[in-house]
C-alpha cells in the first residue's frame, strides 16, 4: 500500500501527515493529528459519533478515507470555540444539560452546526428527524433537542462568537474562560 | 441549601462540549502497541488445532498469543460473588480447548497498529470440531443434551426455590387461578463507547497501569492484580471519561485479563479498543428470562397469591464479579412489588447456553416489574376489570405495617401517591372516553401504566449487606478549596457536579471551589461496585456529606479556639467562617487552611490540623421509606396496517427522595425510558437455533433515535428535606419500568383484536402476527 | 474493523478510470461517495486490491435537463435532492432521495454510486425502475445505455462489466396527466426500508388509467415490478377500490424474503399497504396537474 501525504485545513490550521490510504478520516484526525474530540462509535456509518464538517457539510468521518480529504476544510468539535469563548451551540447545550457521558456529543454538535449554518427554519418534529442520524444511549434525546432549539434562539438573538473556520485549535484560554 | 436541589450546570460539560474529554481510546502512549482478538465463528466446537506461525510473520506483528499461551500466564477467571449452590466452571481469558459462543476469543495478536493486527488475525488457522449447539432453554435443560462445561454435570448453573406466607391457603381461597408465560428477549446495554483499555506494564519499575473504561476502577484493579499476578501495590487503574456503561463495564472482562497478561510479557503498552461488531457479538447481553406465573385471585380483583417460575439464559461464561444468577435474588425479593399478597413462591433456574455472557443491564431485575405489571393487566382483563382498579384494589398505601411478603418494610412507600398522580396527570377517564371514539373510527389507541419500587437504598431492614457502605476522602486545600475523592466511577451521571453540590453546601464554600476526582486507584477509596445499582445518590452522597462534615468539624474546632466562640455558633458561608449573626468577626477558610499546611504546629492544643478526612459511610441518618420508585403511564397508537407503534404521550411520576440536581435526575429517567422503549420495539440480540447471532452491526441491532423516543414529562414526588440523607437512587428507574408501561399500552390498544402480549419484543411484524393480520408462519 | 489494505488511485478523468478498469477488472472497485463501499470494506466483506477514486472528476458532476433528466454519476444525493431541475423534471427522484439515510450520508453519497451498488432496499434503484430510466456505462470499448430492468440484475449485482464505469443516469420525461408517489416503511427514521413502493400513474383524456407502474423495494434481489397488477389497472376507472385491488394483486405476486426485521408475510403486508397508499397519492397528483 502506497502511503500518501494528506494536507488539509482543520479548524483553520493547515495540517499534514503521511498516511496509508486505508486509514479513515476519523482515525487520521485522532491518531495523526491528535484531535481526539471526534469519536468512533461503529465504523459503519450508522451511529454518527464521528460526524465532522468537511467543506461546510456534515460527513461521517468513518466513511471517508483520509486521502479523500486532501485540500478539504474540516471543522471538528475542537474548532467551535473562538478565543476561549463557547459557540452559542455549546452554551445552549450546557444550559440545557443536553449530554451525559459525552461520547455521542461531538457527532451531535457537528450535525447541529450544519443545521444552524443552513439557517433554515424547522420545527421539533423535523429537528428530531434531522438528528435521527446520531445515536445517543444516555439522554433519551429530549435534552439534546432542547439544546438545539435554544441554540437557534441564541443565534437569532445575535449572541455569538463567530465560531467560524478561522478558529485556532487548542486555545489555552478556553480552560480559564469557562465558569 | 444553595446548590442541592438546583439545576447547577455540569462541571463535566466544560470538557465534553469542547471535545476535550479523556476517553480510553484517547490515550496514546509512546511505544504503544495494538491488540486484535481472533474470535470463534462457531457457537460450540472443540479447538482441534491452532496455527499461528504465518500470523507471527505478518507485517507489523510483535506477538501472537493463543488460549494455551494466555492460560500459562494467568489464573482462571474467578472471584465472582459466591452464592450457595452456584456452579462455576473453570475457564480462562481465551478459549483453550473449546469455544462456547460465536465471538469467543481464541487468540490475540499484538502489532504496530490495529489494522495490521487485524490483518494478522486472518492468517491464524483454527481447526474446529463442531459440537451440537445449545441455543435454547429446552436444549440447555435437556438432560441428554450437550453440556457446555466438562467440570459441570449439566447446563444448570443455579437453582433457587423459596416460599413465603401461606401459598397453599392463597390458592385454596382463590376464586380462580390466572396463568401465563411471559418471555423477555435478549438485548444489550450498548453504550456509545465500546469496551477498551490500554494495559501498560513498565518492566523497569514493575508498575502496571491499566487505563480503563470502567464502572469500578478498584474492583478491576483487585481482579486484574489477582488474575494476572501483579501485586496490588503495583497495580494502578486509571479511568478518565467513560462513554456510557449501563452495567456492562462493572466487570473484569476476559479481554482485560488477556490484555494485561500480554502487556506484562511484552513490557510495552498495549491498547485494545473493541469495535462495534465485537461489541454486539461478545461484550455482554442481558434480559433473557422467561417466567411462568400463576395468580390466585378473587373475582373482585383481590390478589391472593403468586407462583413464579423463572428461567434465565446466562450465555456461556459467567460474568465476574456479578454472575447472572446473582440477580435472581433481587428479582425474587421485589417480584410482588408494592402489592399485598398472602402467599408467594419463587422458583428460579439459570442455564448456560452457547451465547454471549449475560451481564448486568440497568436494573438487572427488571423482569419482575415487567411480568408483574403485565400480569396485573392480564388478570384485570380476565376478570373484566379496569387495570387501574386492580391496582387500587391491591396496592399498599405505605402504612407502617405494610411489608413485602419477602421481608422488607414498605412503610411510607409512595407507590399509591405516584399511581394516583400519574392517572390524574394523563387524564385517565378522558383518555378512556377518547379511546371509545377512536375505536369506533377504526383507530387503535391504548394506555398503559406500571408501578415499580427499587431498593435504592431500600428500607433499613433491606440494608446492612456487603454493599451498604461507601467511602470518601476529602481534603481542604491550602487555598480553602475542597478536593473530594470518591469511589464512584461516573459514566454520565454527573457526579463531579452532584457530589460537589453536596460538599459545597455542607462545607459552606462556593460550588466552583469544589473539585471531585475519581478513577485513579492510587487516590480513590475502595468499592467493589463503583458506580452501579443506583447507589450513588444515597451512598456516595452520604459518604461525601459525612466526610465533608468531618473536615468541617476539624476546621470549626480550630476556628472556635481562635475566635473564642463555641463551634455550634459558627457558620461557614462562601468560604468564610463567622459567628452566627456577627459577620464582621470573620475568618477566611483559606487562612486556616494555609496555616494548616505551612505551620501545622501552631494550631491550638487539642485540635486536629490535618484537614483531611476519610470515612466509611454505613447509612447513618438515611431518612424516608428508603424506596425509590414511581409510576409511568403512556398512550400509544398502533397502526394496524404496518404494525408501527407511535407513542403519543409519556408521563413519569418519580419518587427519588430529595433531588440533588433535577436536570441530572430527569436525564437519567429519560435515558432509562429510552432504553426500555428500545428493548420493546427495536432491540434484539437475536440468535438462531444454531447459536449464530443475527444482529452484529448497527444495521441490525437497532438503537432508537430522536425520531422514535417521545417527549417524556416528569413530575417528581419530592419529600421535604429532613436534614438527613434523603436522596434516593434513580439511575435504573426508567429502564426498569418502561417496558411494562409500553407493553401494557400496546395490549390495551389491541384489546378489540383479542391480542395478548406475552413477550417483550414487539417489532411491527410481530404485532401484526399477534393481531392476526398476517400469518405467523411467514 | 479497520479496512483491509488496497492501492488508492485518484483519477482525473473518465478516460483514466476506464483505462485502469480495463487493466484490473474485478480486482478494482470504484470509490465515489463511499457510503456503501466503505462499510463493506470496514466489515472486510469486500477486499479490492485497488480503489479507483472518482471524486476529482468534475465532468461527472452535472445535472442536465433536455428531453428528460440526466444526472452525472458523481452528483451527491443532497445536491440532487435540492436541485430545482430535479424537482421539476423528476420529482419522484427528489422525493425518494429524502428517504436516503441521513443528511451526512446524502452529503457524500452519489446517485451513480447508489445505482452501481444496487441494494434492492435502496430508493434510487426502485425509482429508476419506476421511471423506466437508464444508466450510461462507459469503457474503453465504448459507451452503452442500459435500461433499468437490464441493469439491475440481483442482490448488489448489476450488469456492468468489470471494465465499465457508470457515468450518468437518465430519467425520461413524464408524460402529461401523470402523477407519482414514493412511500416506504422502515423501523426507524432513515433506516433501509423493509419495503417501499414507487408508483407512476398516467391518466388518459377520458380520466381512465392510461398506464401504471408499480415497483417495490425490499422484496427481492432487485426492485420488483408488479407487472400483473399494473396491467390490471390499465383502462380502468380510478377509484380507491381499484388501488386496493391492484395492491392486493401486487402483494400476492411477490415472493419476499424473511429476515430479522420482518417475515415474508410481513413484507407482503407492507407491499399491499404501501402500494395502495402510493397509487392513491400518485392518482391525486395526476389529477392535480390536470
Query: How do the strands of the widest beta sheet of chain C line up side by side?
Result: 4-5-10-6-7
Strand content of chain B: 15-25%
Number of helix segments of chain B? 20
The name CATH uses for the topology of the largest domain in chain B is Aldehyde Oxidoreductase, domain 4
The major pleated sheet of chain B works out as: 7 strands, mixed
Q: How far apart are the first and last residues' alpha carbons of chain B, in Å?
A: 62 Å
How do the helices and strands follow one another from N- to C-terminus of chain C? EHEHEEEHHHHHHEEHEEEEEEEHHH
The CATH architecture of the largest domain in chain C is: 2-Layer Sandwich
The biggest sheet of chain C, with number of strands, parallel, antiparallel or mixed sense and barrel status, is: 5 strands, antiparallel
The CATH homologous superfamily of the largest domain in chain B corresponds to Aldehyde oxidase/xanthine dehydrogenase, molybdopterin binding domain
| Structure summary, number of beta strands of chain C | 14
Taken from the alpha-carbon principal axes, the silhouette of chain B is: globular
Distance between the termini of chain C: 54 Å
Mean pLDDT of chain B: 96
Number of domains in the coordinates of chain B? Answer: 3
* Level-2 CATH architecture of the largest domain in chain B: 2-Layer Sandwich
SS-based structural class of chain C? alpha+beta
CATH class of the largest domain in chain B: Alpha Beta
Mean pLDDT of chain C: 97
Amino acid at each position: 500500500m502506497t502511503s500518501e501525504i494528506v494536507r488539509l485545513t482543520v479548524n483553520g490550521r493547515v495540517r499534514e501527515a503521511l498516511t496509508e490510504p486505508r486509514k479513515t478520516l476519523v482515525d487520521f484526525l485522532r491518531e495523526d493529528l491528535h484531535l481526539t474530540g471526534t469519536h468512533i462509535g461503529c465504523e459503519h456509518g450508522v451511529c454518527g459519533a464521528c460526524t465532522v464538517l468537511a467543506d461546510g457539510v456534515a460527513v461521517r468521518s468513518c466513511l471517508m478515507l483520509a486521502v479523500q480529504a486532501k485540500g478539504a476544510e474540516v471543522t471538528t468539535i475542537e474548532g467551535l470555540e473562538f478565543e476561549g469563548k463557547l459557540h452559542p451551540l455549546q452554551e445552549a447545550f450546557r444550559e440545557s444539560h443536553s449530554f451525559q457521558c459525552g461520547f455521542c456529543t461531538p457527532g451531535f454538535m457537528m450535525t447541529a452546526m450544519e443545521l444552524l449554518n443552513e439557517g433554515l427554519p424547522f420545527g421539533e418534529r423535523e429537528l428530531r428527524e434531522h438528528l435521527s442520524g446520531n445515536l445517543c444511549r444516555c439522554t433519551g434525546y429530549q435534552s439534546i433537542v432542547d439544546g438545539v432549539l435554544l441554540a437557534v434562539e441564541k443565534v437569532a438573538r445575535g449572541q455569538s462568537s463567530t465560531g467560524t473556520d478561522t478558529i485556532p485549535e487548542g486555545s489555552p484560554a478556553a480552560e480559564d474562560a469557562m465558569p | 441549601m444553595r446548590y442541592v436541589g438546583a439545576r447547577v450546570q455540569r462541571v463535566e460539560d466544560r470538557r465534553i462540549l469542547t471535545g476535550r474529554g479523556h476517553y480510553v481510546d484517547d490515550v496514546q502512549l509512546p511505544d504503544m502497541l495494538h491488540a486484535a482478538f481472533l474470535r470463534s465463528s462457531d457457537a460450540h466446537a472443540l479447538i482441534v488445532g491452532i496455527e499461528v506461525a504465518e500470523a507471527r510473520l505478518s507485517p507489523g506483528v510483535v506477538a501472537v498469543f493463543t488460549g494455551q499461551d494466555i492460560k500459562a500466564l494467568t489464573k482462571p477467571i474467578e472471584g465472582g460473588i459466591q452464592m450457595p449452590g452456584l456452579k462455576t466452571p473453570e475457564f480462562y481469558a481465551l478459549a483453550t480447548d473449546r469455544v462456547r459462543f460465536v465471538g469467543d476469543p481464541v487468540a490475540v495478536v499484538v502489532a504496530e497498529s490495529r489494522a495490521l493486527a487485524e490483518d494478522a488475525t486472518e492468517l491464524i488457522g483454527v481447526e474446529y470440531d463442531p459440537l451440537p449447539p445449545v441455543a435454547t432453554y429446552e436444549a440447555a435443560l435437556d438432560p441428554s443434551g450437550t453440556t457446555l462445561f466438562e467440570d459441570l454435570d449439566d447446563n444448570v448453573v443455579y437453582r433457587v426455590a423459596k416460599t413465603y406466607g401461606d401459598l397453599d391457603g392463597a390458592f385454596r381461597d382463590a376464586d380462580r387461578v390466572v396463568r401465563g408465560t411471559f418471555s423477555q428477549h435478549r438485548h444489550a446495554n450498548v453504550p456509545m463507547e465500546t469496551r477498551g483499555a490500554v494495559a501498560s506494564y513498565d518492566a523497569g519499575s514493575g508498575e502496571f497501569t491499566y487505563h480503563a473504561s470502567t464502572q469500578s476502577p478498584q474492583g478491576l484493579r483487585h481482579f486484574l492484580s489477582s488474575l494476572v499476578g501483579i501485586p496490588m501495590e503495583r497495580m494502578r487503574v486509571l479511568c478518565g471519561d467513560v462513554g456510557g456503561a449501563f452495567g456492562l463495564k462493572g466487570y473484569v472482562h476476559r479481554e482485560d485479563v488477556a490484555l494485561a497478561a500480554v502487556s506484562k510479557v511484552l513490557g510495552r503498552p498495549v491498547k485494545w479498543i473493541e469495535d462495534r461488531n465485537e461489541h454486539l457479538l461478545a461484550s455482554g447481553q442481558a434480559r433473557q428470562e422467561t417466567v411462568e406465573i400463576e395468580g390466585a385471585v378473587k373475582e373482585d380483583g383481590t390478589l391472593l397469591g403468586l407462583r413464579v417460575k423463572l428461567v434465565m439464559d446466562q450465555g456461556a461464561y459467567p460474568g465476574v464479579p456479578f454472575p447472572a444468577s446473582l440477580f435472581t435474588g433481587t428479582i425474587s425479593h421485589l417480584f410482588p412489588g408494592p402489592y399485598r399478597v398472602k402467599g408467594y413462591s419463587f422458583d428460579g433456574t439459570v442455564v448456560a447456553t452457547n451465547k454471549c455472557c449475560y451481564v448486568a443491564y440497568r436494573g438487572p431485575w427488571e423482569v419482575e416489574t415487567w411480568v408483574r405489571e403485565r400480569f396485573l393487566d392480564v388478570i384485570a382483563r380476565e376478570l373484566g376489570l379496569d387495570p387501574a382498579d386492580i391496582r387500587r384494589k391491591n396496592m399498599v398505601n405505605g402504612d407502617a405495617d405494610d411489608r413485602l411478603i419477602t421481608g422488607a418494610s414498605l412503610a411510607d412507600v409512595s407507590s399509591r401517591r405516584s399511581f394516583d398522580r400519574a392517572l390524574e396527570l394523563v387524564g385517565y377517564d378522558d383518555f378512556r372516553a377518547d379511546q371509545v371514539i377512536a375505536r369506533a373510527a377504526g383507530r387503535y389507541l391504548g394506555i398503559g401504566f406500571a408501578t415499580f419500587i427499587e431498593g435504592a437504598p431500600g428500607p433499613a431492614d433491606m440494608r446492612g449487606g456487603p454493599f451498604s457502605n461507601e467511602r470518601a476522602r476529602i481534603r481542604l486545600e491550602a487555598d480553602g478549596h475542597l478536593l473530594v475523592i470518591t469511589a464512584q466511577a461516573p459514566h454520565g451521571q454527573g457526579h463531579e457536579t452532584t457530589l460537589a453540590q453536596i460538599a459545597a453546601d455542607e462545607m459552606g464554600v462556593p460550588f466552583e471551589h469544589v473539585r471531585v476526582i475519581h478513577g485513579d486507584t492510587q487516590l480513590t477509596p475502595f468499592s467493589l461496585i463503583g458506580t452501579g445499582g443506583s447507589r450513588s445518590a444515597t451512598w456516595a452522597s452520604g459518604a461525601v456529606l459525612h466526610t465533608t462534615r468531618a473536615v468541617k468539624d476539624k476546621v470549626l474546632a480550630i476556628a472556635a479556639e481562635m475566635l473564642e466562640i463555641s463551634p455550634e455558633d459558627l457558620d461557614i458561608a462562601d468560604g468564610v467562617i463567622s459567628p452566627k449573626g456577627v459577620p464582621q468577626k470573620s475568618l477566611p477558610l483559606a487562612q486556616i487552611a494555609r496555616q494548616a499546611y505551612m505551620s501545622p504546629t501552631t494550631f491550638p492544643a487539642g485540635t486536629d490540623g490535618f484537614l483531611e478526612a476519610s470515612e466509611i459511610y454505613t447509612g447513618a441518618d438515611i431518612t424516608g421509606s428508603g424506596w425509590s420508585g414511581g409510576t409511568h403511564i403512556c398512550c400509544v397508537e398502533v397502526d394496524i396496517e404496518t404494525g408501527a407503534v407511535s407513542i403519543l404521550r409519556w408521563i413519569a411520576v418519580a419518587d427519588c427522595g430529595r433531588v440533588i440536581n433535577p436536570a441530572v435526575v430527569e436525564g437519567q429517567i429519560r435515558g432509562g425510558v429510552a432504553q426500555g422503549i428500545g428493548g420493546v420495539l427495536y432491540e434484539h440480540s437475536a440468535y438462531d437455533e444454531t447459536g449464530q447471532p443475527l444482529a452484529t452491526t448497527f444495521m441490525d441491532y437497532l438503537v432508537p433515535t430522536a425520531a422514535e423516543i417521545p417527549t417524556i414529562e416528569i413530575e417528581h414526588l419530592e419529600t421535604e428535606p429532613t436534614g438527613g440523607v434523603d436522596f434516593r437512587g434513580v439511575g435504573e428507574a426508567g429502564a426498569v419500568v418502561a417496558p411494562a408501561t409500553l407493553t401494557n399500552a400496546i395490549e390495551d390498544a389491541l384489546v378489540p383484536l383479542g391480542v395478548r402480549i406475552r413477550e417483550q419484543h414487539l417489532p411491527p411484524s410481530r404485532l401484526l402476527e399477534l393481531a392476526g393480520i398476517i400469518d405467523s408462519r411467514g | 474493523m479497520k479496512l483491509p489494505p488496497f492501492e488508492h488511485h485518484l483519477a482525473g478523468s473518465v478516460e483514466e478510470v476506464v483505462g485502469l478498469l480495463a487493466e484490473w477488472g474485478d480486482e478494482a472497485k470504484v470509490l465515489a461517495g463511499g457510503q456503501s463501499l466503505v462499510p463493506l470494506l470496514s466489515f472486510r466483506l469486500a477486499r479490492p486490491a485497488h480503489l479507483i477514486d472518482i471524486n476529482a472528476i468534475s465532468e461527472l458532476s452535472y445535472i442536465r435537463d433536455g428531453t428528460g433528466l440526466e444526472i452525472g454519476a458523481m452528483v451527491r444525493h443532497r445536491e440532487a435532492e435540492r436541485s430545482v431541475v430535479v424537482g421539476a423534471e423528476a420529482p419522484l427522484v427528489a422525493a425518494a432521495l429524502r428517504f436516503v439515510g441521513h443528511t451526512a450520508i446524502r452529503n457524500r453519497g452519489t446517485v451513480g454510486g447508489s445505482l452501481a451498488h444496487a441494494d434492492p432496499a435502496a430508493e434510487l434503484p426502485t425509482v429508476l425502475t419506476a421511471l423506466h430510466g437508464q444508466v450510461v456505462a462507459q469503457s474503453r470499448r465504448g459507451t452503452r445505455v442500459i435500461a433499468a430492468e437490464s441493469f439491475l440484475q440481483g442482490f448488489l449485482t448489476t450488469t456492468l462489466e468489470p471494465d465499465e464505469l457508470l457515468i450518468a443516469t437518465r430519467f425520461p420525461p413524464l408524460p402529461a396527466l401523470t402523477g407519482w408517489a414514493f412511500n416506504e416503511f422502515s423501523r426507524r427514521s432513515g433506516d433501509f426500508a423493509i419495503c417501499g413502493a414507487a408508483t407512476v400513474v398516467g391518466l388518459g383524456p377520458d380520466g381512465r388509467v392510461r398506464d401504471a407502474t408499480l415497483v417495490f423495494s425490499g422484496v427481492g434481489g432487485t426492485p420488483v415490478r408488479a407487472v400483473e397488477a399494473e396491467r390490471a389497472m390499465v383502462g380502468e376507472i380510478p377509484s380507491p377500490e381499484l388501488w386496493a385491488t391492484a395492491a392486493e394483486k401486487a402483494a400476492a405476486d411477490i415472493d419476499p424474503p424473511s429476515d430479522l426485521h420482518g417475515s415474508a408475510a410481513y413484507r407482503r403486508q407492507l407491499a399491499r399497504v404501501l402500494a395502495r397508499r402510493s397509487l392513491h397519492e400518485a392518482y391525486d397528483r395526476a389529477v392535480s396537474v390536470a
